[in-house]
């Protein structure tokens, strides 16, 4: 109303950033994913295998390169998981409860997080479960490939399903919960 | 007070392989600084870093950079959302506690020059100034105008600063612009924002740098010629530029006095001036006379890796003492619009 002192003002601030250029390491990782391979870098000093590769080993603090590349399996062990109950908001595409799991791939020393677990009732999900990747059709992997901001496997692997193998014993993954 | 010295300095080469993360840029730089000091990462008592997540728009980007320092097993560390020179100040304070003898300081920044014009506006007050979105070139021009009006200097005087900086930078492999230029040629360029032309403003760059500090006899053990920090101080002017006289920098003057710049002859001063006019303000504020070699590396004008430039000034001042045999050198770092915040450090051979 005219004459009223201003008590609030809205000042919307937004900044548009150029999309970060993917690193050569992550671009190569994405190309391999599109070809159906999950690769990592093996530290030349401690032998740990990082998936996705980072271009260095953060424990030994030495650079790693394509020469250190190794392929790991597209199957592994669920180390931990969350059951997500979607709240409905604009843009929400989920309607039912679902599971995001952290998975230790066979041959890797780092887990991949936030992996969709399908093909099993939620109440049956547990740590130690053996799972295998559900790949997107080959034509859909390109472009979707490459690790997202939190790492992981991008859109090339759409989810994971139980293999039916016996559970992995705890001492095989208890150092890799997160 | 404990005697603390800079014992090594390393800077990422200007030419970087494409597609690198900041952690990948930093890793070899930190390794080089440690190797110069013949230290292992596990020998370091405290680690402090400077960077700004706003530059790339990624929350907690600085945490990933820790992987370049080596944080396993866990290390005592801290981060400032500022130029790495302020991280060095924190490390210097931490060493004063007396229980550690060494510290690693590093800084990194990847800045897109166009995006920076908006991003740096976010450091302005949100009510009166930010809604106008005055980019850093506009703010620098306001200050330059004030300096020319107050001092009677001319645009040709500003061009002479650029000519000298670029000529000095010929010996600096990390300069973006270097070479022999004539003031007439530079003055023929159009204004970016009057009274500033392209040569009056910094060359924005990606960068990474690392410094190792050590105390007392440890410093002598790690370096044949450490550069002793005999004074270090930082001060802040009011946030709103409208209440300041932009032709002066009281905060730089105070910081210089507290650091003891005037307590002895100064042979060289590495200034983080990011406009030619800022250099005039700083020379006046720090009381540097005509005998002082101003920014022998070319200073902040020839390469401005944002968040790294100030730490590089301290590193260049260390080189002046360590490699070029100078006895007493001043290093300066700045933050905020128009020299709002200033850090001054005096390095000496002993």
Draw up the topology in text.
The complex is a heterodimer of chains A (178) and B (350).
Chain A: H1 24-34, E1 38-42, E2 49-50, E3 56-57, E4 62-63, E5 69-72, E6 75-84, E7 98-105, E8 111-117, E9 130-135, H2 138-141, E10 157-162
Antiparallel strand pairs in A: 1-2, 1-5, 3-4, 6-7, 6-9, 7-8, 9-10
Chain B: E1 4-11, H1 22-36, E2 46-50, H2 61-69, E3 77-80, H3 84-96, E4 102-109, H4 113-119, H5 136-151, H6 155-168, H7 183-187, E5 204-205, E6 207-215, H8 216-222, E7 227-236, H9 250-259, E8 268-270, H10 276-285, E9 293-294, H11 299-302, E10 304-305, H12 309-322, E11 328-335, E12 341-348
Parallel strand pairs in B: 2-3, 2-4, 5-10, 8-9, 8-11
Antiparallel strand pairs in B: 1-6, 1-7, 4-6, 7-12, 11-12
Helix pairs in contact in B: 1-2, 3-12, 5-10
Any overview of this molecule?
The complex is a heterodimer of chains A (178) and B (350). Chain A has one domain. Chain A is globular and about 75 Å long. Chain A has helices spanning 24-34, 138-141, and strands spanning 38-42, 49-50, 56-57, 62-63, 69-72, 75-84, 98-105, 111-117, 130-135, 157-162. A five-stranded antiparallel beta sheet of chain A has the order 8-7-6-9-10, with no helix packed on it. A three-stranded antiparallel beta sheet of chain A has the order 2-1-5, covered by helices on one side. Helices cover 8% and strands 29% of the residues of chain A. In chain A, 31% of the residues are buried. With 178 residues, chain A is mainly beta. In chain B, α3 crosses α12 (309-322) and α5 packs across α10. In chain B, the strands form two sheets. Chain B has a ten-stranded mixed beta sheet, with helices on both faces. Chain B has a two-stranded parallel ribbon with strand order 5-10. Chain B is α/β, with parallel strands linked by helices. In chain B, 35% of the residues lie in helices and 20% in strands. Chain B has two domains: 4-112 and 204-227, Peroxisomal Thiolase, Chain A, domain 1 (3-Layer(aba) Sandwich), CATH 3.40.47; 115-202 and 230-348, Thiolase/Chalcone synthase (Peroxisomal Thiolase, Chain A, domain 1, 3-Layer(aba) Sandwich). Chain B has helices at 22-36, 61-69, 84-96, 113-119, 136-151, 155-168, 183-187, 216-222, 250-259, 276-285, 299-302, 309-322, and strands spanning 4-11, 46-50, 77-80, 102-109, 204-205, 207-215, 227-236, 268-270, 293-294, 304-305, 328-335, 341-348. The model of chain B has no long low-confidence stretch (mean pLDDT 96). Classes of the chains: A mainly beta (178), B alpha/beta (350). Chain A binds chain B through residues 9, 11, 13, 15-18, 20-25, 27, 54-56, 58-61, 63, 149, and chain B through 17-21, 23-24, 27-28, 30-31, 41, 56-58, 67-72, 112, 115, 118-119, 122, 126-127, 130-131.
